[in-house]
Amino acid sequence: MRHLLTIIMILSLQACVGEKSGLKFSAPDPGGNIDNLTEEQQFAFEELQQKVLKPSNCLNCHSGLATFEGVQAMFKPGNPEESSMFVKMEDGSMPMGGEPVTTEQLEITRSFINSFSVPVEPEVVDFAVIQQRILVPHCIQCHSKVTSEEALGKWINKKKPLKSLFLSVVASGKMPKNKPRLDVKEQMLIKKYLEQI
Ligand code: HEC
Ligand code: HEC
């Protein structure tokens, strides 16, 4: 009985929200066109669902966000600052009526959006590039202290940079822990960074 009541409440809330805003709410369609995404993007999408959209109850009001198609309408590939989803979470206006999202949830959203950027190969791979392309999207969620070149130094073998833990754990697939292996381009970035040390 309580379940039924909850369902009715959610349904009427959706109806009311939909009417008020003129938004269209489509039924969840887990099929979508997610198969066209790379493994990394599918992983990022799954993470966005499990760690951000579901716990923040976005789906209660925006049921379309259960599909990739629905999410796609709310972001600009590779550009978080111009993605309505990111902007509304950052400024706290979404989730409407709920607790603002955490910094970690915001970072998960950012890396999801960034996983759709077309990487431009940088000429010089300095720490800023490593931070933006490797550490923020793949490492700092667990290694929260690795936010400076100095901190990264503990994973670097100064005498033989190419023998650094930073490269070996990534090349072996040991890190990022329990996550998809970094792609070849990302591993090349790390190599290029180490070569110029
Ligand atoms: C209680 C219902 C509710 C919840 C929960 C909610 N929203 Fe909304 N959302 C709305 C309504 C209503 C609007 C339209 C009015 C407005 O923009 O203020 C809206 C508008 C938006 C918009 C701008 C319109 C668009 O389609 O681009 C975005 C983006 C958005 N929501 C994202 C989210 C995200 C992401 C979450 C979860 C973190 C979320 N919302 C949670 C009700 C909700
Ligand atoms: C999901 C959490 C998680 C992520 C993401 C992650 N790590 Fe780790 N990392 C760990 C844990 C936990 C350990 C401790 C050893 C173990 O359990 O394997 C560790 C250990 C390490 C070590 C060995 C440290 C030492 O002193 O021996 C290195 C190097 C490392 N990680 C690098 C990285 C890099 C580089 C990334 C990003 C590409 C990354 N990790 C992403 C959880 C993570």
Q: Which features would summarize this protein structure in a list?
A:
binds heme C, mainly alpha, 10 helices, 197 residues
Verbal overview:
The chain is an all-alpha fold and about 200 residues long. It has 2 domains: about 25-115, no CATH class; about 125-195, no CATH class. Helices cover about 50% and strands about 0% of the residues. It contains 10 helices and no strands. The longest helix is centred in the first third of the chain and has 20 residues, at about 1-20. The site of one heme C (HEC) has 21 residues, from helix 1, helix 3 and helix 5.
Mean pLDDT, nearest integer? 83
The proportion of residues in beta strands is: under 5%
Count of helices?
Answer: 10
Q: Which structural class do the helices and strands define?
A: mainly alpha
Number of folding domains?
Answer: 2
Element-by-element helix/strand order: HHHHHHHHHH
Quickly describe the structure.
The chain has helices at residues 2-21, 39-53, 58-61, 68-72, 84-90, 103-114, 127-139, 149-152, 165-171, 184-195.
Give the SSE layout.
Blueprint: H1 2-21, H2 39-53, H3 58-61, H4 68-72, H5 84-90, H6 103-114, H7 127-139, H8 149-152, H9 165-171, H10 184-195
The chain binds heme C (2 copies).
